[in-house]
Design a protein that fits this description.
With about 190 residues, this protein is α/β, with parallel strands linked by helices. It has one domain (about 1-185). The protein contains three helices and 20 strands. It has helices spanning about 1-20, 50-60, 165-170, and strands spanning about 30, 40, 45-50, 65-70, 75, 80, 85-90, 95-100, 100-105, 105, 115, 120-125, 130-135, 135-145, 150, 155, 160, 170-175, 180, 185. A hairpin with a 5-residue loop joins β7 (about 85-90) and β8 (about 95-100). About 35% of the residues are buried.
Amino acid sequence: MKTKALFLAVLMVVSMALFAGCSSVTPTTTAAPTTTPTTVDASAGASHATDEASFEKAIAADGTWIIYTTADLTVTKAMTLDGEFTNGRKDDAGKDVIQRKIGLYTQDADRNVTARFTLTIPELTIKSPNASIQHGIVKGDLVVDVDDFQLVDTKVEGNVYFTEQAYKDSFVMDDDSSITGKNEVKAN
């Protein structure tokens, strides 16, 4: 069983590295609208969060566009997903696609989800545009302070608070996602 888990973890890391390495566009990140964009090496486009410190570093404004886990992760303090990132792709108009993703899962070569994980955190504030949490469980509250936040096949065992009605209006949750607590606007 340990061999299979190790194999899946290695497969995911290699797949993500190949995906990032095949991009012809170098992702950029902006810590805040008033700062100068920083170029990020395409191979650094994903971060494997294995503990609280690596998770905090990966979700920071100078972190990476994909943060993923390969095991359950417990974080003891409130944190913020911050910064604007591109995923290395262009849209139909030729503009960089802005995206941020927390992946609580592993997948096989055919992109089938092979395992799901739980992120336990007192509170996670979402400030990165077009961010999503995918294929896992979040035990704790989410505070959404940005447009176009998404839950994809994710269960939130807690509340989802939006700091503005516009953020709630742009929120998307697929049929495989659920929220056990409140889902409401709650201004800071």
